[in-house]
Amino acid sequence: MRLTELRLGVELAGWRDGVRDFLRTEMAPGNVAGHIDPSDLTGLDRTFELRHQKEAARRGMLAVSLPIADGGRGRSRAWKHVFDLEAAYHGAPSMDTGVTLCGFVLSRFGTPDQKSRWLAPMVSGKMLGSIAYSEAGAGNNLAAISTRAVRNSNGWELSGTKSHVTGAHKADMAVVLAVTDPGGNPRSSMTMFLVPLDAPGVQVRRRPTLNRWTLGEIALHQVHLDTGCVLGEVGKGWSQVMSAVAAERGSPAYYGWVERGLERLPPEVTAPDRARLHAAATCVRAFCQRLVDFEETGRPVGYEASVVKVAATELLQTIARTALSAAGAEGFAWSPMFADGPPHYYDTLEAIHPTISVGANETHRDMIATTLLDHDPPSTSPLPEEPGQGSVHPSTSPIPAVTNKDPVVAACLAMAAQARRILTITTHHGLNRPLYGKVVGDFQTARHRFVDMAIAVEAMELTTMEVANTPPGPQRDYLLSAAKMVGNEHLLDIVAGAHQLHGADGYYADHLLAPYTEWAWAAQARAGTTAEHSKKLAALTR
Question: Can you give the pTM of this predicted structure?
């Protein structure tokens, strides 16, 4: 068992073990040898990817969370999350398959004929697909796309160029977003189309990225499509894309990459640095655990998906930079995935990609801020502070009671409660003070600082909850020391953010922030300092 792995129920854990056994064999060096392709995002060639997909499909893994009527197994999205995490950890080319990229929209909005033509072969692993929403110059702002679809007597004619398309060079089709009502409101003027990439007038061009694999540009030169190629409703493309992106943006696959990055740290990384990275990883683990719990219990997922994306992808950059710096000159030799040689330079360049893919992290911070500031956040932590009190945290249901019989848990509970109160004070006062004719909370920089504080508060609460949910043993010891490190460091970060958002007024001794600031520093020594728990965590991760 990996110390870092998620906490799963019996059935879901059995699924994970089966997936893990399959991927361990699939991705063995002897199987991968001869199929390395540095120009592809997966690092492998199309022959290997199709063979792998067909085998995953045969085992019922590829479309596990699609409806049974569409060839899936009808399981909750938690099962897909677990598969994606393991696929990322093992480096399997199962992430950007036709099912992953196109399956959701085809299943939800496709007609029976469209599903038969496109979805069925994807589910069986015989077809690759891609999504073509973005354009150069538009990026995350889909309202700025310029690709046009004009209706004629026989169907539609598409013209324009789609950019940043993953896997376009090997895909059989693309889901294309185009403007069908140029004079209308952007959110009701777009339509999704199913475009065969071998259709007359379609040209696919590959553009190398910094890490030498390619993204695609799809040029559409008066491409004729019949009416059966409209996916969903005319004019509903925006809402359909938002549904697809919401399903895609939060994935525990990010945590699979984090786990792999931690295991590949070179021995030159110091024990304190290794412990710090593992402590940060427990935050991502807790956020992913919340996502899986939500999906498994049928709770809607909202901003929580963006929290996973932001926290995980920025940690990936930190892991990669730490590894590269520690490895020395040898680590700067570039080598592709699956090839011999140190992976650190490749990983450092690759870590840039997920922070801008599926919406840049700044866009996700905007979404988190909007959601959390739509209403007042709770003023108290959902975790208990008194001995023996139980709590049902909103991330899981049901869960064991949390108690503070363990002095480290007690310290983490108290720090989480204080952090939640500081966040509330900052929301009510710091973000609402006047500044340049507005209030502080109107400025994006302030809103992003608030988001980082909110993520830190949730990390403190959830990492403590994970300790309570874990039986005695090495994994609990790992999570316990990590939770105290997270509590110590995040509480100080939250205090610093609160002072920035309150301005000079917050620095006075009689300000309401003063006692919280003093308490935060005193709490650093309670039940173990960061340095003390860092040594324990480093010993567990040698």
Answer: 0.93
